[in-house]
Amino acid sequence: MTQNFTFTDTSESLSTVLQKLIGQLSGKTTTLRELMEAIGEQGLLLMCAIACLPFLIPVSIPGVSTIFGAAIVMISLAITLNRLPWLPKRILDKQMETARLVPALEKGVNIVSKLDRYMRPRLPALTAGTIISRVNGLAIMAAGILLMMPLGFVPFSNTLPGIAILLFSAGMIQRDGATVLGGYIFLVLTTIYFIALAYGAFWAGQGISNSLTGA
């Protein structure tokens, strides 16, 4: 059964909250279910922020983009519909190596700590109200779909949507409309980048086809 929820402000900086969560990870492996249980009342936006951290660095962790990308899409759908999310058991209980995940999360937190210095409540039109929350949820969903694409070998294909998701999530948590606006800017840049990749792949394919046919 689904329930309504509300997002609550936090007096702690986002990087502090994230660092505390990372400190709770133990054992050789962890799952998305364990991460969500650790988050508790901090909410869905914090889960999105955590899920995008591994993609803020240029090192790819195999399989993580699919798991976290799917989670971000489902969570953003819940934000859009104002309901608690449902996630498949296969995604919730997929084992991830803690030894590889934690260092990536910690490097992401270092980036977030720099962002914290500039965050403060402003531009409430981009954070306050049900309608804008749902619009922002759709934007996070779009970035999550781009993150899920199997292009981890392509430079910045995970980093750009990851930054967009982080800015959306952090901005909504801290009620910073300027940060949310930055999320939209990165989402547009990501979309343009993916279109350019598709365009380049198309013409590369055309060139190979022409060379094979002798055209």
Automatic annotation (TrEMBL):
Which key words are in the record?
Membrane, Transmembrane, Transmembrane helix
| One Pfam assignment | ExoD
Q: Which domain of life is it from?
A: Bacteria
Annotated PANTHER family: EXOPOLYSACCHARIDE SYNTHESIS PROTEIN
Residue ranges spanning the membrane: these are: 43-61, 67-86, 123-147, 153-173, 180-202
Q: Where is the signal peptide?
A: none
**Record protein name field:** Exopolysaccharide biosynthesis protein
The protein's matches in InterPro entries, at most eight in alphabetical order, are given as: ExoD (IPR010331)
